Amino acid sequence: MGFLDGRRVAFVATDGAEMVELTEPWAAVEQAGGVAEMISVERGKIQGYDGMEPAGTFRVDGIAAEANATSYDALVLPGGLANPDALRRDENVIGFVCGFFEEGKPVAAICHAPWVLIEADVVRGRRLTSFPSIATDVRNAGGEWVDEAVCVDGGLVTSRSPADLDAFCAALVEAFAQGPHERQTESIAPDPPEGPPGLRVA
Q1: What's the chain's average pLDDT?
Q2: Which of 95, 24, 100 is nearest to 58 (CA)?
Q3: What fold does the segment set 8-185 form as a domain?
């Protein structure tokens, strides 16, 4: 066994995932002794891509509607373009992702995957990177965007593109081995105030 010693790692992806951003972190988790599981929006298989070209399928182990962050030790969000765009529109995926931050568990996202984190409202006050074209999205969501191969902010690991996979995989294994990090829980926005006394909120 390696650094992860049987820890369960959820990979969340759907059709359009950049295949290498799924397969290489998956292999890194397993080589470190972890157990990787694919969570998606529907059962069956997802279609991976190499850029704009189909690049094989990947078996789904469970669906976000039935998954709970309490059952896993860490989360990986592969990129691509269509994949995170679809994931960020699924409320079950967003709820599942938020669960990792609520419990302080480590999360790794690459390329366009921070779109999902933005939708979950967990990048405010965090330092991260992504594919450069969504840097403005990160900043508008309250994050500090940096142009680095890999960025680690507490339990949050991010990278820009497949060119950064070596650094990304090494950093996520290290972060996952460290386990929960209190910095993660700081990303969860507090419940909005109910209003001043005597004011009835609809």
Answers
A1: 93
A2: 24
A3: Rossmann fold (3.40.50)
Residue 4 and residue 34: Cα distance in Å, rounded? Answer: 5
- Give the SS3 label for residue 159: strand
Residue-by-residue DSSP string for 16-85: TEEHHHHHHHHHHHHHTT-EEEEEESSSSEEEEEETTEEEEEEE--EETTT--GGG-SEEEE--BSHHHH
Q: Report the greatest alpha carbon distance in the chain.
A: 59
112 annotated active-site: yes
**Structural Rg of the chain based on CA atoms:** 16
Q: Which of 7, 112, 160, 181 is labelled catalytic?
A: 112
Which of residues 181 and 192 earns the better pLDDT score?
181
- Each domain of the chain, given as residue ranges in start order, spans 8-185
Among left, alpha and beta (phi > 0; psi -120 to 50; other), residue 111 is left
Q: Which of 6, 2, 7 is nearest to 106 (CA)?
A: 7
**Which has the minimum average pLDDT: 128-132, 151-155, 158-162, 182-186?**
182-186
